[in-house]
Amino acid sequence: MKAITIKQPFATLIAEGLKEYEFRTWKTKYRGEILIHAGKGIDQKAMAKFAHLNLEYPLGCIIAKAEITDCIKIDDKMKNKLIRKNPLIYLGVAKDPKWNGYGFKLDNITKIEPIYTNGKLSL
Questions:
Q1: Helical packing angle, 87-94 and 76-85, nearest 10°
Q2: pTM
Q3: Which CATH number fits domain 2-111: 3.40.50.980, 3.40.50.1970, 3.30.230.10, 2.30.130.30?
Q4: Structural contact between residues 22 and 104, judged by C-beta atoms closer than 8 angstroms
Q5: What confidence tens digit (pLDDT) does each residue in 5-31 have?
Q6: Which of the residues 23, 27, 105, 116 has the least number of beta carbons within 10 Å of its own beta carbon?
Q7: What are 75-119's pLDDT values in tens digits?
């Protein structure tokens, strides 16, 4: 099964069902099941932003499985849609005028017991 490594706190936000899109500068044609690997990297600014959620943020392990159902170009229209959907989660990407890329739509997200392993680049 394919996996994607994601920095914390974003991997946990996905595992908890709070974040339905994973953003990348590259697109994928892959559709199907994927494991969510919480990398060892931490976005400190984002950790502070989500501290009030009182979630656990394990590192270096697979914490969820999901299904990539779409890969969407993140244009201004999509950025506005994301802000309306959940400003807390998506405002950072949506308000950055320099960022452009793709959103991998994640559905059927299931949190699992951590499986410790190393991550890799790409899928």
A1: 160
A2: 0.93
A3: 2.30.130.30
A4: yes
A5: 999 999 999 999 999 999 999 999 999
A6: 116
A7: 989 999 998 999 999 888 767 777 789 999 999 999 999 999 988
Q: In sequence order, what E strands does the chain have?
A: 2-8, 21-24, 32-42, 61-73, 102-116
Cβ atoms 15, 48 nearer than 8 A: no
- What whole-number distance in Å separates Cα of residue 98 and Cα of residue 81? 18
Residues 6+ apart with CB under 8 A from 84: none
Domain extents in the chain: 2-111
The token pair that represents 43 in the structure block: 């976005």
Distance CA 30, CA 48 (A): 33
- Which among 58, 64, 20, 23 is positioned nearest to 39, based on CA atoms? 58
Amino acid at residue number 39: G
In this structure, are residues 101 and 75 in contact, taking their beta carbons and an 8 Å threshold?
no
Contacts 24+ apart (CB under 8 A), 91-100: 92/46, 93/23, 99/23, 99/74, 100/25, 100/74, 100/75
Rounded CA separation 14/50 (Å): 13
